[in-house]
Fold:
Amino acid sequence: ITSVNQTSFNHRRRQSMKHIEISEDDIAKATIKATQMGELRNSITKGEGNLHGFLGEIITANELKAEEENTFDYDIRLNDILIDVKTKRVNTEPRSFYECSVAALNTKQKCDFYVFTRILKSMEAGWILGYLSKKEYFDKAVFLKKGDVDPSNGWTVSTDCYNLPISELKNIEDLQNETN
Structure:
C-alpha cells in the first residue's frame, strides 16, 4: 500500500510542474532585458544564462498575473509578496527527482518565496516547477560546498549552494492562496 500511495503522490507532484510554451513576444522581451543587464558579478554562467533567467521570470509573472520588478532581492511582486525566480537552462524535460538550487551567495536576498523554473536551451518551452517560502526552502535544502559531488546525481558542485528535489516543491497554482 505504501508504494501505491508513494507512486500516486509522486505522480501528483510531477503533474504540478506546469509546462509552458514560450512565445516570440516573451523571447523578444527577455532579450531586451538580458542585453540591458549584461553580465552580473559572480555569475556562474558569465551572463549566458540571463536570457533564460528572464524567460523564467516572464513565464512566472504571466502565470501568476503578477508584476515584474526585477530587483537584486526579488523579481516579481504578487500583492505584497516578493518572489525571486530561480531558473536553470536545460536540454530535457525535468523529472521530479531533479534538484533546484539556490547559490549560497543569494541567501541574503530579501524575498518571501522562491519559484523554480527550467527553460529549454532552445527557448521553445519551459516549466514552472513549483515554489516554497524562503524559510521552508532553507529548512529543507541540503548545503553543498563547491567541489562536493552531489550524491543524488553525481554533479560536481560549481559554487556553494543549497539543493532540494523538485518533488519537495508546492504547486505553483497554490501560491495565489498564500498571498491572500
Notes: The helical segments are 2-16, 24-37, 50-64, 134-140, 175-178. Residues 1-15 have pLDDT under 50 and may be disordered.
